[in-house]
Specification:
By secondary structure, this protein is of the alpha+beta class. The chain folds into three domains: 43 residues; 82 residues, Immunoglobulin-like (Sandwich); 115 residues, Immunoglobulin-like, CATH 2.60.40. The chain has two helices and 20 strands. Strand 11 and strand 12 form a beta hairpin. The longest helix has 37 residues. It is globular, with a radius of gyration of 34 Å. It starts with a helix and ends with a strand. The mean pLDDT is 86.
Amino acid sequence: MAENIYERIHNTLTWKRIVTFNLILFLVLIVPISVRLAQQTTENRSSAAEEAPIVIPPPNYPVGTPKIDRVSTFFGKTGDTIVVLGANFGDYQWASRVYVGNVEAPKEAIVRWSNTILEVKIPDGARTGQVWIVTNNKEARWEGSLLLYDVARAAQIGLQKITSQTGNIFTINASGTVKGMIEISYVSEPVEITAVPGINITSQTPSVDSLGKKMKINFEATTSLPSTRTELASYSYPGLGALEIIRAELYDGNGKIIPLFSEPLSIKATP
């Protein structure tokens, strides 16, 4: 008796044949898609690598001689971040080193490294002392001293604004100070600094760096300063731009530097 069409289909499509057919269909459809996705991933990674190459400077990098113009701020505590401003630091640290408070700052203390700006945390073991950088065996030293301080025991220095063009320079808790140095940055000139009675200004030296105009003022006290608030000098200027204390050092009768800081709002005078 001849088989009808339904019996032929039933006899032909066994379970094994159905499973085999589905497996072949799966491989035909899925494998090319997987290969294409893998190629796209490789292409994306290659493109990303081309966009952000790993930069490896040569051992003699950078070529230029480094220069430090300013350190902001000129005082701080362990863990505080200071900013070193200058030129020819290199866009990458590579083999360069920076020393803060007479000790080398470790890699983890470097917050930012660029050709003109370094941001670095004051490392453990730092003390009142120098800041310098070494790049490609060339050294640049800041002429000032980074002052590490304890607020409870440190002296304070600041600017008190009286009018838009005048004010004074004062100290607090500066007991024992017999001489010192104050460096002020400014925009408009002339800037006139006039000592108060009991203070003698021994020199006023204007200069210019990459960040602008500044004046270094050295003074001596006829008697050591008291611990109370004391005016050192008055200032006047045309009132354009700001005056800012960018560096200061106070010394006692033994020539020892006195810990010093300034409140953020009193370090700068604006019109």
